[in-house]
Amino acid sequence: MAAPKQEIALELSVSRALSRMVFLPPPGLQARRFAIEGDEYVLLEFPWPNTRLPDSFSPAERDVARRANEGKSIPEIAHDRQTSPHTVANQLRAIYAKLGVTNRAELVRACRAGSRAPRAR
Q1: Domain for residue 49, yes or no?
Q2: Is 98 within the bounds of a domain?
Q3: Contact yes or no for 102/37 (Cβ under 8 A)
Q4: Contact 30/15 with Cβ under 8 angstroms?
């Protein structure tokens, strides 16, 4: 019985800490509230920033970069594009090299609207 009480206390302390924090909503945030079979849900939507990609990207690289910016995994991108995960991984390596980045977070920052992505080398 002690373990559930500790879990509840932890949940309450996290909940109290979060209630004191200030979060700024992203621009264009919309919330919809609905119920399904008595359970209540909230759907939060906000516009995704446009991506800015170098002209040197091939059409396939543009598509892969866009999907990676949407948070899709390599297998998900491969499935959507009906290609091999190895092909997508190779395309991501080429994208990283062209942008001078080493990971997804840097890719998203480099492609964010208003940022200047480096030219291909």
Answers
A1: no
A2: yes
A3: no
A4: no
> Residue 87's domain is classified under what CATH number?
1.10.10.10
Host domain of residue 80: 59-111
Mean pLDDT of 82-97: 96
Q: What ranges make up the beta strands (E) of 55-104?
A: none
Rounded Cα distance between 108 and 110, Å, is: 5
| pTM score over 0.90 | no
**Angle 43-78-107 from CA coordinates, rounded to 5°:** 70
30-36/39-45 β-pairing: antiparallel
Give dist(CA 64, CA 10) in Å, integer: 41
Q: Is residue 101 over pLDDT 80? A: yes
Is residue 45 assigned to a domain?
no
